Amino acid sequence: MNTRALSYIEKIDNRRVSIADAETGLVFGMCIFRRPEEQHTITIVGVPGLDTMNRNFKPSSHWAHIFKIQDNQIHEIEAMGGIVMPLDRPNGW
After folding, report:
1. Average pLDDT by consecutive 10-residue portion of the chain (93 residues)?
2. Residue at 92 is within a domain
3. Which CA distances in Å does 38 have to 9, 25, 41, 63?
């Protein structure tokens, strides 16, 4: 997170937690990443030998995530990209 590699994401909205299993510590959720289509290069900080990264993403997409919770903290995140849509289009949920 400190490298700013995800700085191209302008906004995350329509976040939903659909399923949470307290016994296993797994949580399933969905959200929409809003990304301006014009931004194709990101400035990276704190990574020796890497100053920029190229990004050629579409403007917006729905994502599903599975979070592993341990000791009341997020331990791991698995993310799966989904449907690509125009930047300000309603989500349909």
Report:
1. 76 86 94 77 89 76 88 91 70 64
2. no
3. 12, 38, 9, 21
